Amino acid sequence: MRPSTTPPTIRLSDYQQPEFWIETVDLHFKLHPTQTRVRSRIAFKGNTDRTDGPHDLRLHGQDLKLISASINSTALKADEILIDAEGLSIPADLVPQDGFLWECEVETNPQANTSLNGLYMSNGMYCTQCEAEGFRKITYYLDRPDVMAVFTVEIEGDVPVLLSNGNNLGDGKWHDPWPKPAYLFALVAGDLVSYDDHFTTMNGREVELQIYVRPGDESKCAYAMDSLKRSMRWDETEYGREYDLNLFMIVAVDDFNMGAMENKGLNIFNSKYVLASPKTATDRDYELIEGIIAHEYFHNWTGNRITCRDWFQLCLKEGLTVYRDQQFSGDARSHAVNRIENVLQLRARQFREDAGPLAHPVRPEEYIEINNFYTATVYEKGAEVIGMLHSLVGADNYRKALDLYFERHDGQACTIEDWIKVFEDACNTDLSQFALWYSQAGTPRITVTEDFSGDTLTLTFTQTNPDTPGQTGKKPQVVPIRTGFLSPDGSEAAPEQLLVLDAGLKSFEINGLVDKPTLSLLRGFSAPVVLERQITNAERAFLLTHDSDPFNQWEAGRDYALSLLQGMILNDADVDPAFPKAMRAVAVNEALDPAFRALVLSLPSEDALAQAIFEQGTSPDPDAIYAARQTLAKAVATELSGDLQGLYSDLATPGPYTPDAEAAGKRSLRGAVLALISHVEADCATAKAQFAAADNMTEQLSALSTLIRHDQGDAEVQAFYDQWQADRLVIDKWFTVQVASAPADKAVDVARALTQHKDFDWKNPNRYRSLIAGFAMMNLAGFHRKDGAGYEFFADWLIKLDPVNPQTTARMCGGFETWRRYDASREQLMQAQLQRIADLPDLSKDTAEIVGKILN
Ligand code: ZN
């Protein structure tokens, strides 16, 4: 039955402090797969700021069986406790208003918990996930991030390893001296082994480091451990942050909705972001492991020591922590290559979100289900906002502001206003206009005109701030535009400038120029905006060759490809012969980093093209997009045909596999070269040979994907399965590569057949995503098959997963967020599937919120 009341909308403007605070919590767990008992002793005290009392005691609780409860040792009778679906209430007259001891026992069923929130079981092991609101599935509590308490935990269970936050007191007992909100609580118990190391902090304290995995996986922890130690050092040298416990633990679990979780002293990770060996993990996997280990570790200060007052402030910890992990990865690898990869992601996920029905501000103002707001906007755009702040105030001021942030707010639950104030105070500046980045959704669109006379260039920028759901009539934001001025010989005609556009229309004059320079605008992608400029292909080719800013060098090639592909798709234009020549020049230029060359050679994605065409006011045709990319790739391959085999053999990395950026860069260029070779080679012989000879997953998988794309991979698909059937993470890749690389007309059938495979364990989020999201998000033309079969297949599986795991279902609905881009027939077919989902009688509030917004 549909719940009789629609779930409430939670609003930032309704925030109130809690009626009570919590000082200490003692938890006792008696673990059992179906009947776990949890006893809690919680010391409450009154909140003197809440003078509107007396207050009932209202505690959050979900799916709990209450066994007993007492206040100051007096048992509460059944009729004194009001229980509903969201928690319980005790009337004010039974609640000493200035403080009391609450004791309570509940029973939960971890085995039946398929939502993977709260306490659940994954492959026989107990584990928890409490962010955002999972702790209330463990016991009755004030489950909100501004309530911070000191936790002591005791775990009893029939398993060898019993873990929780803080310091290990032995015998399953743990004490965490740092007050924390309940969302950072964690418990793990099971048959686990640890991979150990240690770290000496900047002040000479010894920290024990442990990575817990399933027996047999110990050999796959070295890279994660190395990444952890480098992250710890980096946070000391770059932010002055020292680790604050004597023990830091990471646990790898197979069933996890997200990437990883920063629980205090006990990070829990999706096993795909911990486990790696050369034979089973790709270069991309290594890069993600390094980045996510760093991200979770950095949360210890930006998230845990300073946390969020309420969930509207999520970007306070996430935007900043993403920004920090991006800085770290840039330092560890190549800044240019990292920046390009991050911007590709930003455009593919965040710009797409900001342009559609799910657009919301970096700090949202309302939600129904907070789990739906762990989005590209909060994370990635949140990080971009900090990057802009960094460039506006400069590196020294940035560091000053961060020092002040840690000094002023350590131990507190904070807001974006606190964050902004720290910058205003430390840098003596007014950021009220800048703060619009947090409250206005949508990607600003910038245009520029150039006027050269005498020795002066006048640049005039305009800014428009598009309407988004629920937001119209926006104000101009502060857009920092790093700009270079290139002479005809490629040198800098004038020093680079940071032009700060803080109005709807603004001009800047650059004096003392001899010739009209070629502009290099928005260097390093200095703001998350769409820039529209009049530019010729000759200028693009010039920038691709000469720009000293590698991001803009890449951007020039990207922009060139986008405009050509649009012309081919919309106007039947022929391939401009200058483009393959420009690509060739980059491909064979040994002065350029191979990883960078690979990025230049990769054409804009099908989805990026669909978005670009839609923005020109036309419905994109997925088959035409696919065909145009093929044609252009073939033209590049033909231009390069004399070079390809030489490049391919020169780029081989001799000796044993190493995951470092340099070797990975060569492999990525070699993979791009292989894809080109396969366009001009009839039988895919090179890919077949690479598949057979590969000693690492990067090369094995790139060969397999190339073969499947050319419909030549049947034997290799089988061989890959036979080789890897015992390795879950590799079999995830096996599912993905088949649906993502399948030719468009076959993709739905391939996906459908794979759902029948005995290894399609759909309740495991990694496996589900590998097939269902792999199909809907990575095979544009396959998903958008004209007859709607792809939409129906996708919706069937969303419907199937929703009652089991609402959080992952709701996230996946994003596959439909672009439905209004397409032609009337496809639009109707998608709308019908969305409506079918929306009409389900028992739809979760997670999915209902997302589908409702997509349809509106
Ligand atoms: Zn995070």
Q: Can you offer a commentary on this structure?
A:
By secondary structure, the chain is an alpha+beta fold. Among the domains are: 1-191, tricorn interacting facor f3 domain (Immunoglobulin-like, Sandwich), CATH 2.60.40; 725-856, Peptidase M1, alanyl aminopeptidase, C-terminal domain (Zincin-like fold, Alpha Horseshoe). The protein is 41% helix and 21% strand. It is built from 27 helices and 31 strands. An eight-stranded mixed β-sheet has the order 6-5-9-3-2-12-15-14, with no helix packed on it. A five-stranded mixed β-sheet has the order 17-18-19-21-20, with helices on one face. It has a four-stranded antiparallel β-sheet with strand order 10-11-16-13, with no helix packed on it. α12 (594-601) packs parallel to α16, α19 runs antiparallel to α20 (728-741) and α26 (824-838) runs antiparallel to α27 (845-855). It starts with 9 loop residues before the first strand and ends with a helix. The relative contact order is 0.06. The model has no long low-confidence stretch (mean pLDDT 98). Bound molecules: zinc ion.
- Cα-to-Cα separation, first versus last residue: 24 Å
Q: What is the mean pLDDT?
A: 98
- Structural category: alpha+beta
Which assembly state applies to the chains in this document?
single chain
Q: Major sheet: size, sense and barrel closure?
A: 8 strands, mixed
Briefly, what CATH class of the domain at 1-191?
Mainly Beta
The CATH topology assignment of the domain at 1-191 is Immunoglobulin-like
CATH architecture of the domain at 1-191: Sandwich
Q: Uncertain spans, ≥5 residues at pLDDT below 50?
A: none
Radius of gyration (Å): 28 Å
Q: Which ligands are bound?
A: zinc ion
